[in-house]
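User: Sequence in, structure out. Go.
Assistant: Echoing your sequence, followed by the structure tokens.
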Amino acid sequence: MAEFVTVDGSRVGVLMGSASDWPTMEKTSQTLSKLGITHECNVISAHRAPRRLEAYCSTAEDRGLKVLICAAGGAAHLAGVAAAMTHLPILGCPMNAWSTDGLDSLLSMAQMPKGIPVGTLAVGSAGAINAAIFAAEILALSDDVVREAVLTFRSEQSAATFELPGAPGH
């Protein structure tokens, strides 16, 4: 049995430091699905399961993954440790943890040493959704189907901005 969940054809790996991150990161999964991007989701703590994380990261590219999205709260080392273990792009989603309303998580991901980048997004749901969109934009550079899905998503989002539900004429 594998040490982690794999999904054939996945191009994005979504990692969480704790199962408690799932309510937020489910939005990442839903957004990737809406964009037609096959992905896999796993809970792998950088602190409690470092060997499992190393195995995941060291096999990610061979399994077809192109981007990893890493969510963690508190010390939030998951994204940085993953970035040290693979050359794949890492998108960090800071979670609003038990202290400082996620600022500790945000700073942990954003303040990486030079040479080990983590593309850090906003704390919480906005960052989780943006991570999925950002991953799609990365994939869209070499995949016309994903490119069209991103353009459609953006067009629909723009159109919805001007709608005023319940107002006369809408």
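User: And one key feature?
Assistant: The chain has six helices and five strands.
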